[in-house]
Amino acid sequence: MAKHEGAFKGRTLEELQAMNMNQLAALLPSRQRRSFKHGFTPAQKKLLARLELARAGKLKKPVKTHCRDMIVLPSMINLLLQIYNGKEYTSIQITSEMVGHYLGEFALTRKKVAHSAPGIGATKSSSALSVK
User: Fold this and answer.
1) Would you give the DSSP letter of residue 2?
2) Most CB contacts within 10 A, which of 27, 39, 47, 63?
3) Is residue 47 part of a domain?
4) How many domains does the structure of the chain reveal?
5) The dihedral of CA 16, 20, 26, 29: what is its sign?
């Protein structure tokens, strides 16, 4: 069977959005199912309420959140979120491929280390260099 655009585990986007939470949880991996079973935290409930306002068009700006442990739901698709990575907010456009993942997976907390030239005093010969 060929994978078609916007599908998640053989379901179309419309089918996913028509599902209730229990049916959606049955499609998710065990860690996400366990999170669904425990229920949403107050912070996650607040985020869902803000996302409903954004979907209705009542919010002009993207929704900012620190809630990195929220699972991407089908109702979040096509929304713009800003997820906190510990230092700044990373803008993320939610797509259908993200369903079932955690928001924190898309806002990385660590950057690649980019070293430049060694500084003065880093080596024995660097003390002989002129300072510009």
Assistant:
1) -
2) 47
3) yes
4) 1
5) positive
CATH code of 20's domain: 3.30.860.10
- Residue type at 81? L
Is residue 47 within 8 Å of 63, Cβ to Cβ?
yes
Written as one letter, the residue type at 55 is R
Select from 96, 46, 104, 43 the least CA-distant residue to 71: 104
Q: Cα 53 to the chain's mean position, in Å?
A: 19
Note the helical H segments in the chain. 13-18, 21-27, 30-38, 42-56
Over residues 115-131, the pLDDT tens digits come to 887 777 777 776 666 66
Domain of 38 in residue numbering reads as 13-108
Asked if residue 34 lies in contact with residue 63, where contact means CB atoms within 8 angstroms, the answer is no
- Number of residues in the chain: 132
- What does the angle CA 114 – CA 118 – CA 122 come to, to the nearest 5 degrees? 135
Question: pLDDT (tens digit, 9 = 90+) per residue, 39-98?
Answer: 999 999 999 999 999 999 998 899 999 999 999 999 998 999 999 999 999 999 999 889
Q: Is residue 114 part of a domain?
A: no
Considering the entire predicted model, what is its pTM? 0.77
Structure tokens, 126: 């660097």
Instruction: Let me know if residue 127 belongs to a domain.
Output: no
